[in-house]
Amino acid sequence: MSEMDERRLFGRKRRANAPSGQRRTKRYEVTAMPDERLALEARAAVLQVTVPRLLIESALTPNVRTDTEWKKVAADIFELRRLMGTVANNVNQLARYANEEGVFPADAAAVVAEYRVMVRRLDDAVRALAGL
Q: Among 21, 39, 110, 127, which residue has the least CB neighbours within 10 Å?
């Protein structure tokens, strides 16, 4: 089988035509630095697709994370780390009070509830990091 026949068998270089009765109505223009242009063209050549197809498929793949998404998840985790340190400090103060006075303060329930909220937020951040 020739290389041209093989490419037709396993896909196209261009994206498929729009479905009957529909058109692609929005055109986006992307300006790239020379090194970015070369990297895009090289990656598209390796995959045997056009640069526009590479960009569309890359952007619309759900399990691909952008730098912005990674930074947001990292910021959430650092914020949770700081908040959990604050809660740990409050728990130590409550434990010291309980040991000195022999009574567990009524405010402890609010600290426990706050901790549970933060654990849920941490679980959500870890899931986002894992792509779940």
A: 21
Query: What confidence tens digit (pLDDT) does each residue in 26-46 have?
Result: 778 889 999 999 999 998 888
**Which H or E element spans position 46?**
helix 34-47
**pTM value?**
0.47
CA distance 52 to 30: 10
Each residue's pLDDT tens digit, 35-79: 999 999 998 888 888 898 888 888 887 777 777 777 887 888 888
* Residue 63, number of CB atoms within 10 A of its CB: 5
Taking each helix axis as running N to C, give the angle between helix 108-130 and helix 67-101, from 0 to 180 degrees, rounded to the nearest 10: 160
13 within 8 A of 53, measured Cβ to Cβ:
yes
Reduce the DSSP state of residue 48 to 3 states and report it: coil
Q: Are 4 and 39 in contact (CB under 8 A)?
A: no
